[in-house]
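Quick illustration, no need to memorize.
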Amino acid sequence: MAEPISARDVAIVIPALNEELRIRDVVEGALAHCPNVILIDDGSDDATVERVSDLPITVIRHATRMGKGAGLRDGFAEAMRRGFRGVISMDGDGQHAAEDIPRLLDAANVYPDHIVIGARLRKRARQPTYRRIANEFGDWGIAWGCGFRLADSQSGQRFYPASVCALGVGDIPGEDFVYEAQMLISASRKLGVRCVSVPIESRYQADTGPVKFRKSHFRPLRDLWRITSHVVVQVFAYGNVMAEYRRTRSNPVIIHDPSGEFAPNAVAAPAHSG
């Protein structure tokens, strides 16, 4: 069996666009858990890069905005060039807690060759209602494209094994948030890779409170329409739409939660896990 994946075996890839408000906290938090951080600056016109210029990280800069998909693709390419065994992606706005990195790696070792999604299942009351509804709708559609059910397909905090990173460097259609959805579908259809979700906390700016987040780049109506229309075309291309739907519904969500809080929704770990 392969040696367990440790934090030194992976890279943290952080796509960033105008994140001067929180980027230093995000990068310092990532460095506390992993020495390999790759920041992709997507043509920011603020002080995003200057905020972290003294930190021991790799920075790749886009001269103009190219979208989150291009940022992830470049991050995957750099991680594969350096021989890492996987990538953990995090958004640059501070909505992902670096403290969850060890939990994602733990799940990656229990479920080898799976994509691990940091699913915003804890404290969901903090998540705006419109975002929760949008996420649930996205889960329903993307699951159909993948052939199995999954939790929080819109989360940007994920672990990708090296095989999926290599696929992501290649011909993955779609940009921005569509690219992230397509990564799940392509990994499932081309590599037979499934997803496992690790419950994390929803982190959103309240009306009052000390933590400030910039407004999300995700626009539920616009971006869900792009994702949904993209997925629907593929589902119909598979043929036998209802058979695909039944297959999807018969493959339940996999949740890795040793605390037991979400155990009723989980399926057993694979027999070959360590």
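The beta strands are 10-16, 37-42, 58-62, 86-89, 115-122, 158-161, 195-201.
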